[in-house]
Specification:
alpha/beta, about 50% helix, disordered N terminus
Length: about 350
Amino acid sequence: MPISTPLARHILLRGKTSARIIAVPLSRPLVPLARRLGNETSISSPNVLGPLTYYQFQLLDDLKARQKEGVKEGRVSRLASWAQSKVVGMWDGFGRAEGGWRLSVHKAGERYFNSIDFEEFALKSIDPTLGPSTPLRAQKKSFSENRKDIGVPDLLGVGNVEVPSHVRIPLLYPPSVLTPDLAVRELKEYIDNRIPHHRNRFYLWALLTPVTFPLKFIPIIPNLPFFFCAWRVWSHYRALKASQYLQTLLNSEAIVPEPSEALDKIYKEFPPPSSTSPSFERPNQHQILLPQGAISALVERFVLDATAKVELERALEQVKARVRIAGHGYFESSTMGR
């Protein structure tokens, strides 16, 4: 039956999006993980450092973005925007200070900022309210039956129609490094690991925030512990909601792996060394797949902004640090100076 009503057409249009996810593998273990663990059931393990990948999430539904233009913000959104602008203004003022405790606090804060997991920064870039909606699976069910499920009067009158899923978000990956199944599997485990992490940190900082509130009564010095705790609560909350949103998209099979020749070309232009011999005595030994010089080429080829370049550089440095902390070192690309 053709879908002719405005509401039904709107449901179909909601699925139209230019969203995409770019998977950028940064390191891989030299010894295959399945051989190290003795099975092929998991990509990651608490005792073994698995593959590390940076994800560039570009999840913006064009229709939702246009609909939000000119829409007045709600009270909560306005309050959050006001608080954020006040904190940013205060923090910038600390950075412009000519010496003293303000400048010292600013430098320490910047060092901490750069130590935050690169995965958290990537997830916080997602706004689920502006992303593609969860796909509606094809079904033979009338809108009259649907409104009974949620207790809404039957005012739509669209009849018994089949509403197919039109949401398709490509997961771009380099085919010389990943297979389609592995690309999706790694993204799934990435999300499965981040959800409990951000949930636990959210509750932790939420419990600590009220404890710092009385410090506001100390004269002269601003209540930096309170602002810090509140910021960490908000940051983990955003990352948690983004992780849950991605999990929903994956479960709905809206994210589809798609090989990218453009991305693969970058890995071929900056190849890792081929003379490395893996050692089973050093099971966490990793190979860095993407050198520093490749980041500019990647940003230019995929027309990414300056923020993406900074995040990629931060991610690469953190990956190297994690491998060093694992105690087994890493091999870098022979084209590091390119």
